[in-house]
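Hey,
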Amino acid sequence: MDRTLNPVKRGNKRRRARNWKAWQLYSPDGETCRFCPHGAADHLTSSRQPHFYRPATEAERRDPFEKLYRHDLPSGDSVLVKRIVVANRAELLTAFCVECAKTKDTSQVLCYVRTLAKGEVVGLKTCDQ
C-alpha cells in the first residue's frame, strides 16, 4: 500500500497544533525523531486520535442521537458499528523524513507508521466461525 504523504497546500492552525502535540508525544526529547537525527521541521507528519469500531448494541441502534456508522461485510451484508476512542490525545500515524530522503536520493523516507487502533472493526465474527 502506498503511504506517500504530500505537503499541505494550505495551512491549518488546528492541524498544525495537533501534529505538534503528537510529535512531542512521539519524540523522546520533544524535538528529534526516534529513528533518525532530524527534527520536527524536517518531517511531514499526520496525526489522529486512535480509535476502532465495535458492533452497536440494541439500545444504541434505537437512540436517534447516537452516531453510528455502517460497515459493509464481504458477504454483501452490512452492520451498524460505533466508534470507540482509545486515547484522549492525538498520536502520530505517519512520519516521513524529507532530509533523509534527500540524502538517499528518493522522494520520501518513512520513519514511523502506526498500525494499531486506527479504524479497525473489532468484535465481528466471520461466517466461517
